[in-house]
Amino acid sequence: MMNKQARSGWWEGLPEGIRRQIDGYVLQDASMAAIRLVAEIGFVPDDIGVATATAIVSDRYAHYGDRVARAPDTPIDQESLVRRVDGIPGRIAAIEAVWDGDTVHDWFVRLLAIAEDPPVEHPLALIHWTMAVRHLGEDERVEGRHPAGVVAQGVGAELAARLAVPFHFASPDTPDDEAPRWWH
Fold first, then answer.
1. Alpha-carbon torsion 64, 66, 135, 168, what sign?
2. 93 and 36 both lie in a single domain
3. Which pLDDT does position 160 carry in this prediction?
4. Which of 25, 2, 26, 29 has its CA nearest to residue 13?
5. Which of 26, 94, 128, 174 would give a disulfide with 60, using CB separation of 3.0 to 4.6 Å?
6. Looking at the 3D structure of the chain, how many domains does it have?
7. What share of the chain is helix, strand, coil (3-state, %, to 5)?
8. 147 to each of 8, 133, 139, 171, how far by Cα in Å?
9. Same domain assignment for residues 18 and 89
10. Contacts made by residues 156-164, CB under 8 angstroms, sequence distance 24+
């Protein structure tokens, strides 16, 4: 993979139109489209694979910082979560937290309401690193755990208790997208 200086040089060598298109995707928080474009235009002539394309797009995200139009965080306060659950038809059998991941947020937790009849999972919130750190505050200690897991454990357990249903989080301390699910 290219180092930062080589990536910067590669970026500067691109035609202005391609740079504007990639930056347009970045500014719209469409990282996958930006990564795909970098890989498409860089693979054959420059041997740029997905890892390097991801690093180049990450550099552009860092360049723009707060100017990127990020999707708003899903609310994780109890009142909002209860209101979301109230909109689900049928009886809720459990609240579940499940690890997932992508190239933008790395590991994150999906908080779900599991309906009983029909047995369907309903998304309630996505809890990623930066959102979790904001929720916890800078002084909160997580003892080496992923902040998203800490927040999901607390918020999910509290919601389940309010609803008087079980809470399931098979791997609260370590990201694991293959951990056993509640309803499988």
1. negative
2. no
3. 98
4. 2
5. 26
6. 2
7. 50, 15, 35
8. 32, 6, 12, 13
9. no
10. 156/95, 156/96, 156/97, 156/111, 158/78, 159/78, 159/81, 159/82, 159/85, 159/95, 159/111, 159/124, 160/94, 160/95, 162/78, 162/82, 163/82, 163/85, 163/92, 163/95
Q: Which two tokens stand for residue 176?
A: 């694991």
Per-residue pLDDT tens over the stretch 83-121: 999 999 989 999 999 999 875 567 899 999 999 987 899
Compute and round to an integer the Cα radius of gyration of the chain. Answer: 20
Question: What are the pLDDT digits (tens) for 55-74?
Answer: 999 999 999 988 988 778 89
Tokens 């690193």: give the residue: 129
Residue 73 in domain: no
Angle at 78 between CA 73 and CA 80, to 5 degrees: 55
